[in-house]
Amino acid sequence: MSTNFSDFFSLELVWKRIPELIKKIPITLELALFSFLVSIVVGLLIGVARYKKIKVLGSVATAFLSFMRGTPMLIQLYVAYYGIPAVLKIFNSWGANINVNLVPKLVYAFVALGLYQSAFTSETIRAALESVDKGEIEAGTAMGMTYPQIFRRVIIPEAIENALPGINNSIIGLIKGTSLASTCGIIEITYQNQILAGRDYRYLEGYVALAIIYWVITLILERVFKVVEKKTRIPEQPKELAEV
Amino acid sequence: MAILEIKGLSKKFNNNVVLDGIDLTINPGDIIGVVGPSGTGKSTLLRSINLLERPEEGSISFGELKLDLPLKGNGKKTVKELRMHMGMVFQRFNLFEHKTALANVMEGLITVQKKTKEEAREIALKELENVGLLEWQNHYPKHMSGGQQQRVAIARTLAMRPDIILLDEPTSALDPELVTEVLNIIKKVAEQGYTMLLVSHEMDFIKKISTRVLFLDGGKIIEDGSPREVFGNPKSARAREFFAKMNKLKEPDYII
Ligand SMILES: Nc1ncnc2c1ncn2[C@@H]1O[C@H](COP(=O)(O)OP(=O)(O)OP(=O)(O)O)[C@@H](O)[C@H]1O
Ligand SMILES: [Mg+2]
Domain containing A165: what range? Predict the structure, then answer.
């Protein structure tokens, strides 16, 4: 009896699997988008608090960052998955009236993913703020600008340029991180693959197809980020000569 | 009538007394050169006058405005008002990197003086022309030479019509061949009737343009007079030593 290579691996099946997985891409992207929003909001709060050396917030933030970085993301997902309903039930026992079963699983996942990522994003943001030239801040101060004006008009544009590469990396990290949400029962592309492979036992083809999809998404995003990053940089050329 | 009156200004860094009870009265039109050895507090004096540093003692008065130190309750508002009368030119230019030359000059006009964009633009263009950089208006600082950047910084300061301009070693971060173009602009500004406090190691330049020279040492003003008095006939041994050393440095043997 001869064994055929296609018994182990069939490229054709990979191509066939891809369109079926793509159907769930909206869930993957939605999850990544919401996680990103959570990460950027929390990351901004913590990053700015640490930049401004706000004491109370600072030490709370330090403990939070240490926890988020010192525990696996998968465990954090489970903690959120079981923890958020538990917290809501406690609220209910205090008289709130939240239907725990109506909170979609997606929420647990993007809160967990977003908080995890915020631990890194906050550091990106803090470093970006700190690398803004102190001399420019002094120049603004000396001419009588208020701190909020300086923050908005001098610090932010420079910090965005500094932070953008890190933030863009975090988006790619989140896209890949969404595959963990399959363990919370969310049918995104990774879970979809498990369902399909459970029927025909074509796990290898399925995972290869999955890898290709993640890779293509990442490639597209990297292209987009390059354009966006270029926009925030100081142009290589002077601005078009304006009419005097 | 004095334009700025400083009394008993003292500033410590940790336990290091850097300004030790400075009294200084500045009159309109004064071009004051501030000289002295490195580390005697010249920069600290300028930075304290517009409150980039916070002196612990003394007072700063500008006409009706009076700021008593240390800062209290409503001091912050007075600080901002004081700053609106002063302009500062830094050693390292400190232009806003993300703004064009024109936008740099317009910035304070819009955010601090609340002028409209059109008004700000008109003033800014005039000031850029004044420093000879009209055609550089759309360039970003990183595409300009140090000398050009410092000229934009001077235009940015002049655009605010300050009553006093504080310049802290405006040419010492420049390559030697760029120093003259900036000194020429400063000379022009002095001739336009501005009041200036200029810290510099360019002794010849200070001699030429100052109406008054201060020699600072150990956090105190120990010489205060016309350039002729201070350079020609200093009262203190410290100043004599310092000028002798500066003169020696100029002798050709010392230039490698
Ligand atoms: N932010 C600071 N923290 C601590 N010490 C400082 C600070 N700024 C200045 N000093 C100290 O204060 C003293 C005076 O410094 P300052 O910069 O005012 O001198 P300077 O006369 O401008 O010198 P130079 O000619 O080198 O510019 C120095 O001993 C310096 O080390
Ligand atoms: Mg100095």
Answer: 11-234
Helix (H, G, I), strand (E, B) or coil at B221: strand
pLDDT digit string, tens, across residues B210-228: 999 999 999 999 999 999 9
| Number of domains observed in the structure of chain A | 1
ipTM for the predicted complex = 0.93
Could you say which ligand is closest to the alpha carbon of residue B16? 1
The structure tokens listed for A242 are: 């304006």
CB atoms within 10 A of CB B193: 9
Residue A140 lies in a domain: yes
User: What are the structure tokens assigned to B66, written together?
Assistant: 């009076």
Q: pLDDT tens-digit profile of A88-142?
A: 888 888 887 888 787 888 888 999 999 999 999 999 999 999 999 999 999 999 9
- C-alpha span between B221 and A140 (Å, rounded): 29
Task: Please give the Cα distance from B105 to A119 (Å, whole number).
Answer: 39
Any CB–CB contact under 8 A between A240 and chain B?
A: yes
Check if B38 has its Cβ closer than 6 Å to any atom of ligand 1: yes
Q: Is residue A5 part of a domain?
A: no
Contacts of B171 (CB under 8 A, 6+ apart): B150, B178, B179, B182, B183, B200, B202
Q: Domain for residue A4, yes or no?
A: no
- Asked if residue B131 lies in contact with residue B185, where contact means CB atoms within 8 angstroms, the answer is yes
Cα of B90 vs centre of ligand 2, distance in Å, is 10
For residue A242, being part of any structural domain is answered with: no
What is d(CA A184, CA B253) in angstroms, rounded to the nearest whole number?
80
pTM: 0.87
Beta carbons within 10 angstroms of residue A136's beta carbon:
24
Q: Which contacts (CB < 8 Å, 24+ apart) does range A26-30 have?
A: A27/A106, A27/A186, A27/A187, A27/A188, A27/A189, A28/A175, A28/A178, A28/A188, A28/A189, A28/A217, A29/A175, A30/A106
* CATH number of the structural domain spanning residue A156: 1.10.3720.10
Best B111, B117, B129 residue to mutate vs chain A (most A CBs within 10 Å): B111
Distance B169 CA to ligand 2 centre (A): 7
Distance from CA of B86 to the nearest CA of A (A): 7
